[in-house]
From TrEMBL:
InterPro entries in the cross-refs: Membrane_assoc_protease, NA-bd_OB-fold, NfeD-like_C
Domain of life assignment: Bacteria
High-level lineage: Bacteria, Bacillati, Actinomycetota, Actinomycetes, Kitasatosporales
Any one annotated GO CC term: plasma membrane
Name of a matching Pfam family: NfeD
Domain NfeD-like C-terminal residues, every copy: 84-141
Protein's name in the database: NfeD-like C-terminal domain-containing protein
Origin species: Mangrovactinospora gilvigrisea
Gene3D superfamilies with a match to the protein in the record: Nucleic acid-binding proteins (2.40.50.140)
């Protein structure tokens, strides 16, 4: 079997874990295998094929992986958030005294049960608070 065919088999073999695990590193190695196949088609020797495979794979991991990681972990703009994620970071008004035991706030036009994040804090009616997270049906505020 020709060298390029082995590289294509390797590329497919590296593509399967990419699909199963969704780890982008496997894509970098699959692209490296495709580059090795192209080198074989163009008449490069076995050592050159391995060098091209390694160089393309490492370049992909070193250059593309950090970009993909930043893109994946970039915070979503508030306009695109929905559900309880859209409520995090919003301001609310205290309706009933809020402490670590509970209380009520008006958030987005609705009355929510709430509790203070910090154990020694209490908020009186009329005060403005910020929602830091939603725990079930309770807003945690500071």
């Amino acid at each position: 079997m020709e060298d390029w065919a082995w590289w294509l088999i390797a590329a497919v073999g590296l593509g399967i874990p990419l699909i199963v695990t969704a780890l982008p590193e496997f894509a970098m190695f699959a692209v490296g295998a495709l580059a090795g196949a192209l080198t074989a088609v163009l008449g490069g020797g076995a050592i050159l094929q391995v060098i091209v495979f390694a160089a393309v794979s490492v370049a992909g991991v070193v250059v593309i992986r950090p970009i993909a990681y930043r893109h994946r972990h970039k915070p979503q703009p508030a306009a695109l958030r929905s559900g309880v994620d859209a409520l995090k970071g919003r301001s609310a008004t205290v309706v009933e005294r809020v402490d670590t035991e509970g209380g009520r706030i008006k958030l987005g036009g609705e009355v929510w049960s709430a509790r203070a994040l910090e154990p020694d804090r209490a908020f009186e009616p009329g005060q403005k608070v910020d929602v830091v997270e939603i725990d079930g049906a309770t807003a945690v505020v500071i």
